UniProtKB/TrEMBL annotation:
Residues 271-365 form the DUF5017 domain. The lineage of its organism: Bacteria, Pseudomonadati, Bacteroidota, Bacteroidia, Bacteroidales. InterPro entries: DUF5017 (IPR032185). Pfam families: DUF5017. This is DUF5017 domain-containing protein.
Length: 640
C-alpha cells in the first residue's frame, strides 16, 4: 500500500513527522504517578532561558576552543542553536531535568531555532578578539622616551600596532583576527619649558665603583633614608659614569620597607614631578611615589601624613632583565601650590617581592607637556603565521569609535541592540547601495554575563523595500528525543538517507545483480532491471516494458496485468534491492541504540510508476536491521 504524506527535505536529511501509535498510552497516562515513571509523549518549544542554559553547558566544557566559545555565546545572544552547538548534544540534558518523571521509551518532539548556513565571512569575523592599548602597551611603544598614552605620526599605528600585537599575542595562530582600540594624536607630544623648582641628579654621592654602594644620608643634601622594616635600604650606586639611587629586597627574609625622602620644596601653580627610572628583575611592583605637606622632616613617619601618587606614573618592566633608563611620566603638583611639599620614594618589598628600582634626575619644575588632542580609533589585524597585517576584505565594514559616537553610544548591548542601529548606519554610509547588496559588519557588543566587550559580526542585505535587514539564516526544526531509561534522553537515532544521482549507492545493487544474474544488467553496467536500480539515472525504473520485454524479461512481472499489482510487485523488488544497498552502506549496522530500535529511512525516485501519474515520483521506505540483514517494515510513503 502506498501512503501519501508530505515531508520537508533539509540538506541531505529528511525530517519525517512519523508518530508511533501506542494503544496503551491512554492507559499509561491514567496510572498513578506514585507507581513510577510511565511512557508518555509530548511536544516542547525551546524558550530564551533554555538557550541560555545550553550556552552555559557549552562554556563549562573543558578545553573549549575559541570557535566553540564564540558559537556558545551566539546561542545565548541569538536564541538559536548552530553547527557547533547541536540539538542532539545538549537538548537531552534539558529534557532529563524537565521530564525527570517520564519513563523509558517516552518521546518528546522539541522545536528549536537553528542558525543555518551563516556566510563564511560572518563565521570568520565572529572569531575576532578585542584588544585595547593601555599603559604597558604605550610604554612598550615609547620605550625610554616620555611615555604618553596615544600614538602619533612618529609612533604610527601602521608601524607599531603589529609590534604591540606580536609582543602581547605570543600564541597567535595563522588566521587569528584582533580588533585593536587605540588613541591617536596628529601632533607629537611637546614639552613647554618652565622654571626649575628643584633638581637632583645624585652626583654628590660618594661612590666610584660599580660594585660598591654609597651612603645617601649626609651625602645628598636634604635627602634621608628611613628604614621602616627589614634590612634592605636605599643606597647610592655608580655605573657608566653615572650616579643614582637604588633599592632592592633581594636576599630579604621578610617584609622590607625603606623610605627615600627628599627636601621640602615650595610648589607653584603648574609644577610637576618627573624622574628617570630603571627597573631590573621585576618580581612584583614595589615602588610607591609619596608626597606630604604635613611631614615634620624627621624620621617620624606617619601614614596619615602621606598621599600616594604612584598612579600618575607608568612603569615598565623587562622581566628577568633590566629596562633602559626611561621617564615614567609626570605628576601634576598644582593642587599643592603655595605649600611646602616633601616627596618620597617608598620601597615595599619582601622575601618574594624583590624587584630592583634605580632612580635618577628627580625634578620639580613648571616644565610640562603641552595639551594633547588624542582621539580614539580602531583597526583590524590578522596574523598570517609570521606577522600581523592590516585586515582588509571587500564588503566588510568595521564600526569605528566615531561611528558609535554618532549613534550616541560607545558599544552595543542588551539595551542597545545592534539591529536597532545598524540599518540606519548602513543607509547613511551607503546612500547609493543597490537592492541585493550585502555587507558584513563587525562591531563591539557588551556581554553582561562576562562583563566584557566582545567583537561580533552580522550580515545585512538591502531588500526590495530599500531597507537593510539582518540575515539571520534561522530555521525552525522539530526533532524527536527518546528516553532510553534511567533518566537518559537521546536524539532520535533514526538514519535518513536520500538517494541522489551519482552518489554510487544504487551501483551496489547493480553490481550485486551483475554477479548473480547479469542478463538483467544493461550494456553500460550502470542499471539493472530485476530490482530496477539505475545508478546512471539515480532512480528505480518502473517502466514495465523495459523490465518485461528488454533486459532479463522478468517472467514474474510478465504475469501481472493490473497496474496497481505491477507497482506493488516492483516496490517489493525495490525494497529487496534497498536491503542489499543498505548492507553495503552500513557494514557495522546496529539494530538498536540503548534499547531503542534504530530505523533507517530511504527516500528514492521512481521513473514511470504504472499506478501513478507523472514521469517521476519520490517515495520513502522504512527499514530495520535484525542483526544479520536489513528488512523492510511499514508502508511505502509517497513524498509530495
Amino acid at each position: 500500500m502506498i501512503m501519501n504524506k508530505k515531508h520537508t527535505i533539509l540538506g541531505a536529511f529528511l525530517l519525517l513527522g512519523l508518530v508511533a501509535c501506542d494503544p496503551m498510552n491512554d492507559i499509561y497516562n491514567e496510572i498513578d504517578e506514585s507507581q513510577g515513571p510511565v511512557v508518555k509523549s509530548g511536544e516542547y518549544t525551546l524558550v530564551a532561558a533554555d538557550y541560555t542554559s545550553i550556552s552555559k553547558l557549552v562554556l563549562a566544557e573543558e578545553n573549549i576552543t575559541a570557535e566553540k566559545k564564540a558559537a556558545a555565546n551566539a546561542v545565548k545572544s541569538t536564541n538559536t542553536l548552530n553547527e557547533l552547538v547541536k540539538a542532539e548534544d545538549y537538548i537531552p540534558a534539558l529534557l532529563a531535568k524537565s521530564y525527570a518523571d517520564w519513563g523509558k521509551k517516552s518521546t518528546v518532539k522539541v522545536t528549536y531555532a537553528y542558525q543555518d548556513a551563516l556566510p563564511e565571512t560572518v563565521l570568520e569575523m565572529s572569531k575576532t578578539e578585542t584588544y585595547e592599548l593601555k599603559d604597558d602597551a604605550y610604554a612598550f611603544v615609547w620605550g625610554d622616551e616620555t611615555v604618553v598614552n596615544f600614538l602619533t605620526p612618529k609612533k604610527s599605528p601602521v608601524e607599531y600596532l603589529p609590534k604591540v600585537l606580536t609582543n602581547v599575542k605570543t600564541n597567535a595562530k595563522k588566521g587569528d583576527l584582533v580588533l585593536v582600540d587605540y588613541k591617536y594624536d596628529t601632533e607629537e607630544p611637546t614639552i613647554e619649558v618652565g622654571d626649575d623648582l628643584y633638581q637632583q641628579e645624585f652626583e654628590s654621592l660618594d661612590v666610584h665603583d660599580s660594585k660598591a654602594t654609597g651612603t645617601i644620608n649626609g651625602n645628598v643634601e636634604g635627602w634621608q633614608v628611613i628604614n621602616a622594616s627589614g634590612t634592605k635600604n636605599w643606597v647610592g650606586k655608580f655605573y657608566n659614569d653615572n650616579r643614582y639611587v637604588q633599592c632592592s629586597a633581594f636576599g630579604a627574609t621578610g617584609d622590607n620597607v625603606s623610605w627615600l625622602v627628599g627636601p621640602k620644596t615650595n610648589i607653584v601653580d603648574g609644577a610637576s614631578l618627573t624622574f628617570d627610572a630603571k627597573i631590573g628583575y621585576h618580581v612584583g611592583d614595589a615602588l610607591h611615589v609619596m608626597v606630604s605637606t604635613t611631614y615634620d622632616g624627621t624620621a617620624n613617619l606617619k601614614d596619615e601624613d602621606w598621599e600616594d601618587i604612584t598612579s600618575a606614573f607608568k612603569f615598565q618592566n623587562a622581566g628577568n632583565n633590566y629596562t633602559e633608563w626611561y621617564s615614567p611620566g609626570m605628576a601634576d603638583l598644582s593642587k599643592y601650590a603655595g605649600k611646602g611639599l616633601y616627596i618620597a620614594f617608598k620601597y615595599v618589598g619582601s622575601a618574594t617581592i624583590t624587584s630592583t628600582y634605580q632612580l635618577d634626575n628627580v625634578s620639580i619644575s613648571t616644565t610640562r607637556m603641552a595639551p594633547t588632542h588624542e582621539k580614539p580609533f580602531n583597526a583590524m589585524y590578522q596574523f598570517d603565521g609570521v606577522d600581523w597585517k592590516p585586515f582588509n576584505k571587500k564588503d566588510v565594514l568595521i564600526l569605528t569609535p566615531e561611528d558609535y559616537a554618532a549613534m550616541g553610544i560607545t558599544d552595543f548591548g542588551s539595551s542597545k541592540l545592534p539591529e536597532n542601529y545598524l540599518p540606519a548606519y548602513l543607509a547613511k554610509m551607503l546612500p547609493y547601495a543597490q537592492i541585493g547588496d550585502v555587507k558584513t559588519l563587525v562591531y563591539k557588543n557588551y556581554d553582561s554575563g562576562s562583563k566584557t566587550v566582545v567583537a561580533e559580526a552580522a550580515e545585512y542585505k538591502l531588500g526590495s523595500d530599500k531597507v537593510w535587514a539582518k540575515n539571520t539564516a534561522v530555521v525552525d526544526i522539530t526533532s524527536q528525543f527518546v528516553n532510553v531509561g534511567n533518566g537518559k534522553w537521546i536524539y532520535d537515532p533514526s538514519i535518513y538517507y536520500v538517494i541522489s544521482k551519482g552518489d554510487g549507492n544504487l551501483q551496489r545493487i547493480v553490481d550485486y545483480v551483475k554477479e548473480t544474474n547479469s542478463t538483467y544488467v544493461d550494456s553500460y553496467g550502470t542499471a539493472e532491471y530485476y530490482y530496477g536500480a539505475s545508478e546512471y539515472q539515480g532512480n528505480f525504473n518502473f517502466k514495465v516494458s523495459d523490465r518485461v520485454d528488454r533486459y532479463g524479461k522478468d517472467p514474474e512481472l510478465a504475469k501481472i496485468t493490473d497496474v496497481e499489482e505491477q507497482a506493488a510487485f516492483m516496490f517489493k523488488r525495490a525494497a529487496e534491492g534497498l536491503c542489499i544497498m543498505l548492507k553495503g552502506m552500513y557494514p557495522d549496522a546496529k539494530s538498536d541504540i540503548d534499547g531503542i530500535t534504530l530505523d533507517y529511512y530511504v527516500t528514492f525516485s521512481v521513473y514511470l510508476n504504472p499506478a501513478e501519474s507523472g514521469t517521476r515520483n519520490n517515495y520513502t521506505m522504512q527499514f530495520n536491521y535484525d542483526g544479520s540483514n536489513f528488512i523492510h517494515v511499514g508502508d511505502v510513503v509517497k513524498v509530495e
